[in-house]
Amino acid sequence: MEWLWTIVELFVVVALVLMTGLLAAIIFEAFRRRCNHTHEETHAIFEDPKSLKQVPCPCIFDPAEKYISLIIPAFNEEHRLPGAIDETMNYLQQRAAKDKSFSYEVVIVDDGSADGTTRIAFDFVRKYTIDNVRVILLGRNHGKGEAIRKGMLHSRGELLLMLDADGATKVNDLEKLENQMCAVYRKELQLGDTVHSDSSSRISDIPIAAFGSRAHLEEKALATRKWYRNFLMKGFHVVVLLTAGPGIRDSQCGFKMFTRAAARKLFTNIRLKRWCFDVELVYLCKRFGIPMIETSVNWSEIPGSKVNLLSIPNMLWELALMSVGYRSHMWKIRN
Predict the structure, then answer these.
(1) What CATH number has the domain bearing residue 178?
(2) I need a labelling partner for 321 at 20 to 30 A (CA). Which of 74, 102, 189, 244 fits?
(3) Model pTM?
(4) Range ranked top by mean pLDDT from 112-121, 154-163, 238-247
(5) Range 19-27 contact pairs with CB under 8 angstroms and sequence separation of 24 or more
């Protein structure tokens, strides 16, 4: 029996060492990310593929120049991106033709793609001009959260919509989120807030967040999705409840809209760079008291998803970072 106890003791020692090492790594990484000032880096630039001139990136703190910005993160999306952009541009052009006051831009953030994504993105810039379509190159892969953060911080819209490159959600569903946000905006004005009640106030001045939701499709999704995606979905429901609290049933839908004021607060503070940044957005909205609206959207699963079993360890890692960072007050929230 001595050999059995020796094995048990060895197992316990190894487990303790691994747990201690993991905890130390989490604390170190959370400490490393305590200062989230990467948005204050040297101004990024857009390159106009027609003239080869460099166009300075706008900043989220600048006044809005467009009514809406659509931010699309793209990592190795040469096959799915063209269809999504074509559908998006068709909708935007048709709406602009009907409403002359409607202005827009599409910001494609290439998150270090190794395929033809960059070439395809610049083809759309040539087709629609750099005023309507812009490309931000991150150089190397940082993660979806970082790609969206970068796009948000360099957009010109009063409203800023993030949507996935696969076109899983129909772009015209943005009107559902937009209408809900406008309703909240009108309600805020009726409350007589002296800061926002003057005649020059615009929707971009009031922090509001709208989350597209697939919660109404959950029963059907459970029957058709792969088992590990169901596991991730259910797991995330529990995680969001524990980490960010109740309020949003589907935090992971890649279809979210923010006013410019909300984007300033959220995306200058967000620290998670990959799959769990959505959970951090919910948490930050609650910390700032930003109204959150959850609206059902049409959604269909598109082949080629980047979420797989290997995503689970990264998700757990980021959630641990978030928990340690905020609970220990290492991650300061800046107003």
Answers:
(1) 3.90.550
(2) 74
(3) 0.84
(4) 154-163
(5) 26/317, 26/320, 26/321, 26/324, 27/324, 27/328
